[in-house]
Specification:
The chain is an alpha/beta fold. It has eight helices and seven strands. It has one domain: Spore Coat Polysaccharide Biosynthesis Protein SpsA, Chain A. 37% of the residues lie in helices and 13% in strands.
Length: 263
């Protein structure tokens, strides 16, 4: 726990047998529960997860990265999570930062914390392919302009959410594919969530999961479509299902403050 808040880490997994143990071994002791959702892997991911004493949920068919996250968050909220940290079990992101990211949410400073590969300038040094870096920078710049936000990147798979934020967003309306990650960030901006970032080193190596160029292109088009839907909803012209919720009033916290400043 952190600040009396229950911390749950969720790991959306697909063929993560080779990297799962390294990821789990670095999760800090502040984590109250570790949930792995397996999206019908063909390797020994599930067996490894059970040996590591994780709470395991298995999809009976491959449903996609976004669908995996939907199950992750539903399971985390059902087990009483106050803060949900999502990281990939492929050891691309450092699990050692879970405490810092969860604290940003548990102490009521932010509703959503992102582990950014761009802050600190280490993405390319960590092995991010150059074409992915260029597309990351282009899409992030475009979305900052269209959404009116100021994030260093929208495409990280390392995030910490408050229970209140996850409960407020219509996650089931989001894609079951990779663009789910971008949709939930656009929803958070529309909702009025407080979003913070922390620099996170990244590792690219053969066992780390990474989508190919074709899937990356499809994802990029999905990001632009999400941004267009955001603008239409903001202008009151059309509200897509992913934006059918009431935005929070400016300055209104998503959760009760961690302390009373009047005392």
């Amino acid at each position: 726990m952190i600040n009396g808040k229950r911390i749950v880490v969720v790991l959306p997994a697909y063929n993560a047998e080779k990297t799962l143990e390294a990821t789990v071994r670095e999760l800090p002791e502040v984590v109250d529960e570790r949930i792995l959702v397996d999206d019908y892997s063909s390797d020994e991911t599930v067996a490894m997860a059970r040996r590591l004493d994780l709470t395991v949920e298995v999809h009976r068919k491959n449903r996609g990265y976004g669908a995996n996250q939907k199950t992750c968050y539903a399971k985390a909220l059902a087990c009483g999570a106050d803060v949900v940290v999502m990281t990939h079990p492929d050891y691309q992101y450092s699990p050692l930062l879970v405490t810092a990211m969860a604290s940003m949410v548990a102490y009521g400073v932010y509703d959503l914390a992102l582990g950014s590969r761009i802050l600190g300038g280490g993405a390319l040094r960590g092995g991010m392919p150059f074409y992915k870096y260029l597309s990351n920078r282009f899409l992030t710049h475009a979305q900052n302009l269209l959404l009116g936000a100021h994030l260093s990147e929208y495409h990280t798979g390392y995030r910490a959410y408050s229970r209140e934020l996850l409960s407020a967003l219509p996650l089931e309306s989001n894609s079951d594919d990779f663009v789910f990650d971008n949709q939930i960030l656009a929803q958070a901006v529309m909702f009025g969530a407080r979003v913070g970032e922390i620099s996170c080193p990244t590792r690219y190596f053969p066992e780390a999961s990474s989508i190919n160029f074709r899937r990356s292109a499809i994802y990029g088009l999905g990001v632009l479509n999400t941004s267009a839907q955001f603008l239409l909803a903001k202008w009151g012209l059309y509200r897509a299902p992913i934006f059918q919720f009431a935005p929070r009033e400016a300055g209104q916290p998503a959760s009760r403050p961690a302390f009373d400043s009047r005392k």
